[in-house]
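TICKET: design request
STATUS: open
ATTACHED STRUCTURE:
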């Protein structure tokens, strides 16, 4: 595999052909926030929070799915990049119905952490909130889709890691939603306490039922191999 010479935040580095900007940055201890990306899943470039500036490119590029090229000059934390990431997070929070103080995932919520890292406080935008009633029909999984940021990690993890197709995406635009079957509650037989979707969800949209959590106290939540 060929080596590529790249300038990352002013430092000349070499990376392997085929690696993404995000992989190169992480290999060099540079933190780029991600939401839809997970290393064990193919990148889909849905959330855009990982954008970086590449000299010569008219627009910012998604680092999680853009491969490095010879001579690339990349800025991961320029003013333009940081401002864009802040706006993306603000827009996500503007339509978000959750209250962090009352959220079970608050301590591990990736959305909340990125917002704090970027010093995003109360969103400036007034947009329609995405509201859905909490769905707790399943004996295992509780879904609170008002906190869903449509990163599709659960959809992809279920199909790519568990080889099941419990989740899908339906509707369009603002109404886009992660659905089960024909938009039914999650009570399918295949969905038996595997936890993959819960552990991969970056927000409080998916949780384990409290009684199951009590039963399994002490066991690790993450079951991904
Ligand atoms: S999902 Fe995250 S951002 Fe939303 S209420 Fe819970 S902790 Fe806050
Ligand atoms: S339920 Fe969670 S993992 Fe699935 S799309 Fe929504 S935020 Fe992402
Ligand atoms: S993390 Fe790169 S587009 Fe979502």
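STATUS: resolved
RESOLUTION: sequence designed for all positions
ATTACHED SEQUENCE:
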């Amino acid at each position: 595999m060929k080596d590529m010479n790249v300038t990352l935040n002013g430092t000349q580095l070499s990376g392997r052909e085929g690696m993404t900007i995000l992989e190169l940055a992480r290999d060099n201890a540079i933190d780029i926030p991600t939401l839809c990306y997970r290393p064990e899943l193919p990148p889909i470039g849905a959330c855009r929070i990982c954008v970086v500036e590449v000299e010569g490119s008219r627009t910012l590029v998604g680092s999680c799915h853009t491969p490095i090229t010879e001579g690339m000059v990349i800025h991961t934390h320029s003013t333009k990049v940081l401002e864009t990431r802040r706006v993306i997070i603000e827009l996500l929070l503007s339509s978000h119905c959750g209250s962090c103080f009352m959220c079970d995932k608050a301590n591990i919520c990736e959305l909340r952490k990125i917002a704090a890292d970027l010093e995003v406080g109360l969103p400036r935008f007034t947009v329609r909130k995405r509201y859905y009633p909490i769905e707790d029909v399943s004996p295992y999984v509780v879904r609170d889709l008002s906190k869903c940021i449509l990163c599709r990690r659960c959809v992809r993890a279920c199909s790519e890691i568990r080889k099941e197709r419990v989740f899908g995406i339906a509707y369009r635009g603002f109404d886009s939603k992660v659905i089960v079957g024909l938009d039914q509650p999650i009570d399918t037989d295949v969905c038996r306490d595997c936890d993959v979707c819960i552990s991969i969800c970056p927000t409080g949209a998916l949780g384990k039922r409290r009684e199951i959590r009590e039963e399994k106290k002490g066991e690790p939540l993450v079951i991904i191999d």
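CLOSING REMARK: The longest helix spans residues 79-94. The chain is about 20% helix and 15% strand.
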